[in-house]
Every structure is written in C-alpha cells, then in structure tokens.
Design a protein that fits this description.
eight-stranded mixed β-sheet, five-stranded mixed β-sheet, globular, Immunoglobulin-like, alpha+beta
C-alpha cells in the first residue's frame, strides 16, 4: 500500500529547511462591498499612519479617509478600498482590501520580524477615486529618545564664509523642559571640525548656535551635532547643514505662463540643492547689458519671486549673490512681444471673500476668465480689456469652494492665453478639542479622553474623528519639515501639489508667513500650464527588471474624471502609444500574466507629448494580488470605468455617437486601441459598477476599526516590560450631532513619556479640522537604560542607566541591580548607593560581557530602589552571532515503508547554537487543497474571462473534495454556491450565433470558447451542465475549422486571450475538443503533431503529447514526451516554452508547461520519474494556496487531482521517524487514517555541528 507524503516547511512547499532565522505566514481573505457611485463622481483618498517609523514586529495602523472632490463631503454609500504596501525595492510586501464605512477605512499590518528595513509606502486606491493616495513610513531599528529635539536653520542655504544660525528646541519625553541643560555643539564640514562650543537651554526649551563656515569648501558635506546633557540623560541631535556650492537647480515660473513685454510680470523662483532639498538664496535680475532690473530673496522652502516689466526683444538672466560662490547665471524665459498676464489680488483669497483675478493684455480685446477645480469649470466671466491696462474679474463663488483653484484666461477664439493657481481659505472648519480626565498619569493608568467637535462659531457639530495617541518622542524623531500633514492640509493642498513639505505651515493662521508660503507653493507647480485644455499624447516603453523590453503587455489608461478607458498592447519593441487623448489626470496600468500589475498616475497636458515608461517585476507568490472586479464594464484595475467605443480619430474622454449593437470589428478597434462597450456587457449596474476585491496576501494584514491598549494579565506597577508606543488608534470616532462629544478609553503602556493625541475630523457638510492633546505618563522614581540597538557575540559594553528622581525631595539609599540570562555577565560600575537630590537626573553604568557562543534575544531586567520607591524595567537585548546568516532547504515525497535521505554540510565557521530547523510533513494533499480553496473563494465578477478566472479553480478543488473525506462541509457548500452563480453568469455570455465572447457579442472568439468548453467539461463532473449548450459550443468550434488542420481566428484581443500564436491556439482548441469527448479530428491532430515535431516550444509539445496520447498515437506521444523529458530540469521544471494560450510569462508559464507535461507523462508508466519530479516542483510552487496566475493555478490543480486519482489508495495509520546521522531524533511521531493537518517533527538544530550530515525520514 502506498501513500504520498508532502514534506514541507511553513506553508505548502515540499521542503526540509535549515534556517538561521525566518518566519512565514498564510493569506487571509478580505470582504467585498460593491459600492454604488455614479460615473463621473470623484472621490479623493487621504491616508495617514499612526507613526512615521516602526520596528519589525510592530503594527502599522493605517487610516484612509475618502472624500468627494467637490466640497470634500463624505461618501453616502459603502464601498471598498484596496491597499498595498510597497517595500524599499518597490516590491509589494502586503496587500488586500477593506470595507469603507462612514467614509473611512482602517487596517493594520503586523511587520514580520524578518522584514527588511528601509522606506515603505502604503498605497490606498478606491474603484471610484482619483489617483491612489500614498504615505511613506520607515522600518528600522531605533530607540525612542528621552529628549525630544528639533534643529532648525535660519536659512535653507549657506555658502563658503557664511554665518550659520542653528536653533534647537528640546523637551523631555515625559513632558517639561530641561531648563539649564548644557548642549555641546560641533560642526563639521568635509569631515573636518570647523567649530565647537557649548550653549544652554532656556526656560522655553530653546538654544541657538552661530558659527562661520570656512572660506573654502570642497565637497560641501556639512553636519551639525548637538549633544544635550539633562543630568544623567544624554541625547544627540544631528542635522545636515544646507551648503550650496557651484551646483544649484533653479527654475523660474512666470505667473501666467509667459513673460509678456510691456506689462508688469511676476516671476516665481524655486531653488533646490543637488539632493533636491530647498535652497535659500538672494540675487538680482539683469538685462543683456548687465543692468539690474529687479532683485529677489527666497522666503520659504527655497521659493521666492520678483516683479518687473520686460522690454520687447530684450534677454534677461538671474544672478545669485547669496550664498557666495554660485557662478552660474540662469537665463529667464524668452520675452513674448504680445500676450496676457494674470495675477491674484492677494496671496490667498480669505474665507467669505470673492475670488478676484487681475488680468492685462498687450492689445484691446474681449477675453474671458474661467475658474476650475479638479478639471471641472465652476465659474466663467467675460472681460473687455484695454491695451496695457489691468482689469479685475470678480467671482462670487459658492461658499463650499475652497482649496486650490485654477484660473485660466481665454481670448476671443477660446484659446488659453494665461493661467495660474489660486487658494481660497475654507469658509467653515471644525474645532477639535481633546481633554484628558486627569492632569497626569502613571504607567498603566486608564485614560479617558473627551473629544469635542464644534464649528467655527463654537456650535457642536457631529463629526467623524480619526484619533491616534502615540509616544511623542517617536513623532519628534522625524524632522518637522518632513512630518506628515493633518487632514485639512491633505484635502486642501497635498493632492494638488508636488514635493510637499513643511505641511504644518500653510494653513496655520497664527503664522504670518502662511499665506505667502501658500502662494509661493502654488506658483511653482511645474505641471500647471493649461493642463486641462486641448489634447496630448501618452507613450512609453515597458521593460522588465533587467531593462529588457516586454512585448504583448496590455496597457490601459483611465481618465479619472470621466472614467473612460482605452487599452493597447505593447509592440515587439515593448512600446505603447495612445494618440490624441484629452488633457487631464489618468491612471495607467500594465498587465501581463506572470508579472506584477504595474500602475502609475500620469497627467496628460494639452498640446504635449507625455512619456511614461513602466518597469514590470516578475510576480512572486508574496505579491500575487487578484483583482476580481470590473469597473462599470472595464476590466480590473480601473475605477468608475465608463464604456467607450473608440473609432479612428476619436479622443479619450470626449462623447461618442450612439453605438449600434455588436458593431463590426473595424469599428471597435482603432489602430491597436481596444474599446469596451458596456451595453454589450449586460452588467447589473447596482451590483457590478465599481466593485473591487483584493485578496490579502499576508496573514499580518488585519482589517481594524479601533485599537485600545490594555494591560497584560500579570501587569504590575513595579515591573515595566510593555513599551508600546501607540496606545490608542481609531479610524473613525463619531461625535454626537447635538453635543459634539465622544469619549474613548485605553490603558497607558509602561513607558515614562508624553503621549500625543492627534485628531483629524470631517463632517457631513465638508468641514474639516484637526486638534492635538497631550497625556503625560510619569513616575516619582524611575530608571531608563539606554539599550543599544544590536550587539554581537563576544562584545563587552558599558550600559548607561538614567536614574530619575521626579520628586521635589531627596531620595536616599538608591540601589541598582540587573539580571540577564546565562551567557551574559553583568558588573555594576562605580558607586551604586548614592542619594538622589530633588529632581535629580543622574546616570549609572553597568558592564555587560557577552559570551562568544551566546546569540539571540536576551531579556535584560534592571531593578532600582530609592527610599520607599521601586522601579523595574525589562528590555530586550538583540545579540547577533558573528558572521553571516545562511539558509538551505530541500524536500521530496515518501512512499509507505520507504525513506528519504537528505545530505547537507555545515561550514566549519558556523556559530555554535545558531542553527534552527523546521521539518514538517503533510500525509495527504488535503491541507494543500483546502488552503487553495480558501484562497480562491470569490464572488464572480466581470466578463466571461474574469468570471471564469474566479470559478475555474473552484471546479478543480471541488473535484478533489467530492472524492475525499475530512473537508469542512461549510467550505464545500460555499464553493458549490459560488459555482452555481458562476455557471449562470458564464452561460449568459454565449454569443447570438453561438460560441463565447467576453461580453456575449458577435462573433464568438475561438480561443475563449475553447477555454470555456474545457471549463464546462470539467465543471460537469461536479455539477449539472447543460449538455445541449456544450454540444452546440463544440459544434461552433468545429465549424470554425479552416480545412487545413487549423481554425479561423477572431482577431480581437482582450486581456490575455487572443494574442497567442496560431500554432499555440490551434493546439489548445484541439486539446479542448478532445478533452470534451470529440472524435474525428484526424486532420487537426495531424497538424498539431507536425507543428510539435518542428518546434522547440515546450508548451505546444506538451499539448500535442496529451492530444496524441488521448487519440491512441502512443508512438508519436512518446516521441514528444521524450522531447519534454530532455527539457526537464533537475528540479522538475520543464523549460523551453514560448508562450501559452493566455500569453503567460515567467513562473506562470513554467507552471502551465510543467503541468501539461506531467499530465502527458502520467499516461505512460515509463515516465514515472519525470512525473514525480514535475509534480514535486509544481507543489513547491504553491504559495498561499495559489500557483502563480489563474491559468497556471488551474492546470496545477488539474495535475494534482489527476495524480491523486491515479494513485488513490485506502488510507492507513503509520508513524514518521526522523534520524540524524543514523541516530533517531526524539520518539516516532504517529499518525492515523484520520490525520488531516501537518505532522511536525523534532527540532535538530542543537545537534548539528560543522561537517557533513544526513537527515533521514
């Protein structure tokens, strides 16, 4: 009796692993809601995280607010949002979907311990939104400082010989100011110390230093370091000195777009360092004779401006005087002889005031001024101009109009002549007040916060409030300039500008420079020149990670205002082109099986060619996200998709004439532009419009609405081990409509620190607001060890411990002790029993000596007592072994009463005790198939192909489960119900003249129909299928034979179908017909046989081998099987495929080809070894229940089901024995006939030393 055993490490791969650290997880499924949002309705997503930096092992809490672009009102219907987290290399490390409730969505990501450090991006998209919202955060090892500090320079640029002025602001982590603290300041330029000194912190927490830079600077690498000594607490703050040398990036923006002779012109200036940081400067504007005509000085973020009247025919340039040493002269744009200038009457338009636009022209004439926002015109006024005289266009705009507005001047022929951005202050805002129930707390205390929301007049207003309570010392680790904006700034400014920094300045009405800073920001946006007028083109090249071009990529572009979609396929050079498309914002997407879907946001400007290249990454299992929705008739990936027929000369985003049903192909395809007609789709509007679903690929993802920190069951006030930095987070707390009140409660962690409560609010009328509060957690006596981020085996360190007396009286008999695990020796240094004076902050030292063979995470506990007070702190010490990590894995299959031996070597320089192993056995494929089914349960959506991709994998898993016991009945029932829905939807796409087409139009598509025939044939084994429908589908395909052994082909290409080569398509159609039971295909079979004999394409050869074996040509089949065997690599993968029926590539194509090869080999017993190797490799590719793309998953599951059916035997009990180097390890592990899950075998890492070893199962 035989049984198949799958040996795996974590998940479902067949492997035995020897790992120096590592962690894996399985996926989860997220819910779906199909929102009802009218086409053209636009919402913008705004995203925030609870902190800017995280350690591995912590949770990232993400909140997304979805507000309407007009009036930023909340959504009135539920919906879904998709999210992904991009790693430092641009790869997707986690993704999924979440439900939008009350216009907010929240989720958390538990950062795996093995996650690489670096900058991460969380990206949130909605199917009805504009461009995806993004927020950056860092993952790195860090220690929360005990002193919060910020360094600010008086200017954003200094040159050789300039005097640098640097200001420091510092506060204690637990609150209060270290008045009188000494600060040692050191400045280094080009790695040479140029100045040092000592300054003192004043009562406001401020200190400043002034020093002169060297007269000669070579590289311009400057840094200032300020070491703050607050008693025994010492922290260092550093910042790069913005030194400007010869290189400076400077851009000038005439206010209306052009310099016009004879009229007053305002010009905005923006300076950047080579590192793209702001560069402050001052200078003059001179004419061709060198005469000065204007001067300027930057005012904020390297931005400034000047005004002058240019002379016709004259040339002007800008010279930088400060900082010294900038020799480059920057030419101004060419002066136009005639034209129009535009300016704003003020830096920003105050609330409740009319928008006033001033314009002037070099000639008399009738002009018009239009105000627009988000590509929508909101006001229009005609103005009669006299030459060289300014006139005001005054607009009484709706009260709800605020934020960034585009003002455009048109001449009498409706040609845009000048344009600029304006900002109008919001008329209404929410005041958010956060009050704690007590003035101060001790660690572990319960805190109740009272949140009050009122309008600008103090009247209560019901609001949705996002609330975060986080350790403020962590927030201040990020330079204030780089700190993320609050919700009002996100909504009113962030989504409208590029390179957004200093977010706290622009809407701060207490800052006298706020209005000027806003005007300078808007005046230096490079994309603003008539961006919404006319049409342009969009083109680019698709490449892979090695920069090789990729042909055959489906490239789609969606207008984010109209929802209109176009699609093209990249040519043999990887190039794609969209001809004339209307100016505006677009979402661009590139799709190819086997690759990650790549999306980008682009803005097409009028009368310009826009280039956007896309680089695609091969999809790995960790990144495989299935987008299962259509957006109003548009394939997955595009939101609010409006059906659009493309005809030659048509422009995307503009209305088309009414289309007749089922138009001829040459009307649907314009060049290589592919159109989608919604009427042909037959969608249920309410159910299918804008529905989005993603399957989360990481078990560390969790949908969450609220998190409130609670005390651990064994919590003690004298034992501090929990130092959670975020103690409360909520995606949306609702305040009462009548009182404006809400309360939340949580427990503090064990940290002695100050927590900052940050609230962002929005109301139903579009009002926005934010507020800040503080919660101080203090102890009368406490200690703070300064633990290094990481140490190495064998290290000897001196560990500083801050000892803090928070009382206004003396504390006697101070004692300090420490405990650590064996392998770490602790010695207290110096006097350990001195008294503490009132409010004293002293420092003690202890020596830690780490054994050379000790490594891992060590719990270090420090206890201190002073008088009647006690404190205990436990921290984790990360001890890394010397050397570099190494990992090895392997695996295979076991037969009954058989064994499998694995050989491996441990290097001589291995650190003893650093090895860990994981050996896991699956007695049946059941667990693997169950995981597959759970990950594939999805509601059918979209056209025929999308519906099929949802349901076909379920067919294969159902075939397995209906012949095996031990499967969760609820799971099988859910899959059966979904199959019923899918079947009814699939048969609805039958063409009027039979066959199948994506949307049920005429004529049918041969390849798609063959694919459908295969699915219906397989589906008939698990449910009733209309036999007459299958027969007429088969007959329709037979009628498409061309009499030469091939089939006529519909030239339409949609998604992945239709673009495969003729030989590939013909072979697949023949295979589908034969698998459905068709006879009499001798001519077509002969053609496939001839094609397989003359090609090296393993995919075609594998199809042909299956066809010949099924039709009785054993000799021909074996010849082709031999060719496949020669192409099989040692790991089981069958190489050499060109493409597949779905134009797959990469890993997905390899899985499809290997699966077809194994199906063929299984028909001949002599290829048993090839079958075993191929099946092992296929199962090894199973990650989180999927095998790459949908088509490769289908064929992989088909192969596993076929193998299981061919080798089915009665189950029997047994036992697993693990031996290392011939000696049994632990007791045998027994299993029974009912065993379903994994069998975990003993850990052997501690038994492994340098040299060769054998592991036997």
């Amino acid at each position: 009796m035989k049984s198949v055993v799958y040996v795996v490490v974590a998940g479902l791969s067949i492997a035995v692993a020897f790992v120096f650290g590592g962690l894996t997880a399985a996926p989860i499924e997220t819910p779906q809601i199909n929102p009802v949002v009218a086409v053209g309705e636009r919402y913008v997503t705004h995203v925030s995280t609870d902190k800017p930096i995280y350690r591995t092992g912590e949770k990232v809490y993400v909140r997304s607010v979805v507000l309407h672009t007009d009036g930023h009102t909340p959504m009135t219907n539920p919906g879904t949002a998709s999210f992904e987290i991009k790693g430092p290399n641009g790869d997707t490390v986690a993704s999924g979907g979440a439900q939008i409730i009350d216009s907010v969505v929240g989720f958390s990501w538990h950062i795996p311990w093995s996650q690489a450090g670096g900058e991460y991006i969380v990206r949130i998209s909605t199917p009805f939104g504009d461009t995806p919202a993004e927020r950056k955060f860092d993952v790195r090892a860090y220690r929360a400082p005990r002193l919060k500090s910020q360094i600010v320079f008086a200017r954003d640029g200094y040159g050789p010989g300039d005097t640098v002025s640097a200001s420091l602001h510092v506060e204690r982590a637990e609150g209060g100011v270290p008045t009188g603290a000494k600060v040692s300041v050191g400045a280094r330029v080009d790695n040479v110390e140029t100045w040092n000194g000592t300054i003192t912190v004043d009562a406001a927490g401020n200190a400043s230093a002034n020093f002169k830079l060297p007269a000669t600077i070579v590289r311009g690498e400057g840094v200032i370091a300020m070491t703050i000594a607050d008693g025994g607490i010492i922290e260092t703050a550093t910042k790069t000195i913005p030194i400007l040398l010869q290189t400076l990036d400077l851009v000038m923006y005439p206010e209306g777009g052009d310099l016009v002779a004879g009229l007053p012109n305002r010009v905005y200036v923006e300076g950047r360092t080579p590192a793209k940081k702001p560069a402050d400067m001052a200078g003059v504007i001179v004419n061709s004779a060198g005469r000065e005509v204007a001067s300027f000085r930057t005012e904020h973020e390297g931005r400034g401006g000047f005004s002058f009247v240019p002379v016709k025919g004259e040339k002007y340039s800008l010279r930088v005087n400060e900082p010294a040493g900038i020799k480059t002269v920057f030419p101004l744009p060419v002066v136009k002889e005639s034209g129009v200038v535009i300016s704003s009457a003020s830096d920003v338009t105050p609330r409740e005031k009319d928008v006033v636009v001033r314009i002037a022209s070099t000639a008399d004439g009738e002009y018009s001024v239009a105000l627009s926002q988000h590509e929508k015109e909101i006001a229009f006024k005609r103005v009669a101009l006299k030459a060289s005289q300014f006139a005001d266009a005054v607009f009484s705009v709706p009260r709800s109009l605020d934020g960034v507005i585009v003002a455009t001047v048109y001449d009498g022929k409706k040609i845009p002549k000048a344009e600029r951005l304006l900002f109008r202050q919001p008329e209404h805002h929410i005041k958010v007040k956060i009050v704690a129930d007590r003035a101060d707390y001790v660690p572990g205390d319960k805190v109740t916060l009272r949140i009050t929301t009122t309008d600008e007049a103090g009247k209560p207003i019901g609001s949705v409030v996002g609330l975060t309570v986080t350790d403020s010392s962590v927030l201040e680790m990020i330079d204030k300039r780089e700190q993320a904006p609050r919700l009002p700034v996100m909504v009113l400014l962030e989504s409208e500008v590029k390179e957004f920094a200093e977010a706290h300045v622009y809407l701060d009405e207490t800052n006298p420079k706020a209005s000027l800073a806003t005007d300078l920001l808007l005046g230096t946006q490079g994309w603003r020149r008539f961006a919404s007028a006319g049409a342009g083109s969009l083109k680019g090249v698709i490449t892979d990670a090695s920069n090789a071009v990729i042909p055959g990529v489906t490239v789609r572009v969606m207008n984010t205002v109209t929802g209109a979609v176009l699609s093209v396929v990249s040519d043999e050079r990887g190039a794609y082109t969209f001809g004339e498309i209307k100016a505006g914002a677009y979402r661009l997407s590139a799709l190819l099986p086997g690759f990650q879907t790549n999306t980008a946001n682009v803005r097409v400007t009028g009368f310009a060619d826009v280039r956007k290249d896309l680089r695609m990454q091969v999809a790995t299992v960790a990144e495989m996200v299935q987008v299962e929705a259509f957006f109003g008739g548009v394939p997955a990936g595009f939101a609010g998709g409006r059906a659009l027929e493309i005809r030659r000369g048509a422009r995307l985003g503009e209305p088309m004439p009414m289309a007749a049903p089922a138009p001829p192909v040459n009307q649907i395809v314009a060049g290589n532009l592919i159109a989608f007609e919604k009427e042909e789709a037959g969608f249920n509007e309410k159910r299918d419009r804008a529905g989005l679903k993603r399957i989360a690929v990481d078990a560390h993802i969790q949908m969450i609405r609220e998190y409130a920190h609670t005390l651990r069951p064994d919590w003690s006030e004298d034992s501090r081990i929990d130092f959670a930095e975020t103690v409360y987070w909520s995606a949306g707390v609702k305040t009462d409509n009548s009182t404006g009140l809400a309360t939340v409660s949580f427990n503090l962690s064990d940290s002695v620190t100050s927590f900052r409560a940050i609230a962002d609010a929005f109301a139903g009328d579009g009002s926005l607001g934010s507020g800040v509060g503080n919660v101080e957690s203090v102890k009368p006596f406490s200690i703070e060890p300064k633990i290094p981020l990481q140490i190495t085996s064998g290290d000897v360190i001196q560990l500083p411990v801050g000892v803090i007396n928070g009382l206004s009286r003396r504390l006697d008999r101070t004692q300090l002790t420490a405990k650590a695990p064996g392998g770490i020796k602790i010695t207290l240094l110096g006097d350990n029993s001195g008294a503490l004076t009132p409010k004293e902050r002293s420092r003690r030292f202890m020596q830690l000596k780490v054994g050379r063979e000790f490594s891992g995470l060590a719990n270090l506990t420090l206890d201190a007592a002073a008088g009647n007070y006690h404190d205990s702190v436990s921290r984790t010490l990360d001890v890394q072994p010397l050397g570099f990590p190494h990992e090895n894995s392997t695996g295979g299959m076991l037969t009954a009463n058989g064994s499998r031996t694995f050989e491996f070597s441990i290097p001589d320089d291995m650190i003893r005790g650093s090895i860990s192993t994981n050996v896991t056995v699956y007695p049946t494929p059941l667990a693997s198939m169950t995981d597959a089914l759970q990950s594939l349960l999805r509601q059918p959506n979209g056209c025929f192909e999308q519906t099929s991709s949802t349901s076909y994998p379920l067919v294969m898993t159902q075939q397995y489960f209906l012949t095996h016991t031990g499967v969760d009945p609820a799971l099988v029932e859910k899959a059966r119900n979904l199959l019923d829905v899918s079947y009814k939807k699939l048969v609805g796409f039958e063409s009027p003249t039979k066959g199948y087409e994506w949307f049920g139009a005429d004529p049918g598509h041969e390849a798609l129909t063959a694919y459908g025939l295969m699915q219906f044939t397989d589906m008939s084994q698990v449910r009733d299928v209309d036999k007459q429908m299958v027969a007429r589908t088969r007959n329709w395909l037979l009628a498409r034979r061309d009499g030469k052994g091939g089939f006529s082909r519909n030239s339409r290409v949609l998604d992945t179908f239709g673009g495969a080569p003729a030989d590939t398509t013909n072979a697949y159609i023949v295979w589908a017909l034969i698998e459905s039971g068709e006879k009499g295909l001798e001519r077509e079979v002969a053609a496939v046989k001839a094609s397989a004999a003359s090609t090296q394409d393993s995919y075609i050869i594998a199809l042909a081998a299956n066809i010949l074996a099924a039709t009785g040509d054993s000799t021909g089949a074996r010849q082709l099987m031999d060719k496949l065997a020669k192409n099989q690599e040692t790991n089981g993968n069958v190489r050499g495929a060109g493409t597949s029926i779905t134009r797959s590539g990469g890993e997905a194509l390899n899985i499809e080809t290997t699966a077809l090869s194994v199906l063929a080999w299984m028909r001949e017993p002599s290829y048993t070894v090839n079958v075993q190797k191929g099946l092992k490799w296929i199962v090894d590719m199973n990650k989180s229940g999927r095998f790459g793309s949908t088509q490769s998953t289908i064929l992989a599951l088909r192969t596993i089901v076929a193998y299981d059916a061919a080798h089915a035997r009665p189950k029997a009990p047994g036992r697993m024995i693990l031996s290392l180097d011939g000696k049994p390890v632990g007791a045998p592990v027994a299993f029974t006939a009912e065993t379903r899950g994994a069998i975990v075998l003993p850990e052997v890492g501690k038994e492994l030393g340098p040299g060769k070893h054998t592991l036997t199962l």
